[in-house]
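ok so heres the complex, two chains, lmk if somethin looks off
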Amino acid sequence: DIVMTQSPDSLALSLGARATINCKSSQSILYSSTNKNYLGWYQQKPGQPPKLLIYWASTRESGVPDRFSGSGSGTDFTLTISSLQAEDVAIYYCQQYYSTPKTFGQGTKVEIK
Amino acid sequence: QVQLVQSGAEVKKPGASVKVSCKASGYTFTNYGIAWVRQAPGQGLEWMGWISAYNGNTDYEQKFQGRVTMTIDTSASTAYMELRSLRSDDTAVYYCARDSAPFDRWGQGTLVTVSS
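and the predicted structre for the whole thing:
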């Protein structure tokens, strides 16, 4: 199984600050024949299901604000929130869909300081 | 619009079974698979398995093999997940999600509580 490890487990930042969440996979999730990284990012607010933000490591889902961006390749990935807003308070998960089981990271809790 | 609507909360005794439904609308049901993901209280997301809505092929997480069955009723655009021999640590919110490689749409979740 591919293990996904996120860091940090939590972060508290001021409104307008830049938030950076890292995700590392235990093996490469770059599929050579498509040159795509099989990595998604999700946002989960309390009492709600997860919501897909980013797929193929860097493609923003329709309707997702452009302050959210994804980067990285191979085994190391980053989700960046360029200017933290109050509505961004949530837990963020990365997920690999390169192979089953389609494993998730443990989550990163983002709060406002 | 794409929607996945799940059945309501369940309370079960240890050793019992539960069957959760997930009704899809707003897209061609057979074009996508359905994944099932669970989340224990205060915990992260755990992939349980996947079923093809096209042909019913399944792929289960090894830890659930023998206890879980995922099925599809294409005439009703509905997916089902049955979990048997329930234990207290199966208490969780169970989600279905449309599997387009990432999971781009999710059901609202079904709370299953296992308690004597």
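quick notes: Chain B touches chain A at residues 35, 44-47, 50, 59, 61-62, 95, 97, 101-104, 106-109 (CB under 8 Å). thats all i got rn
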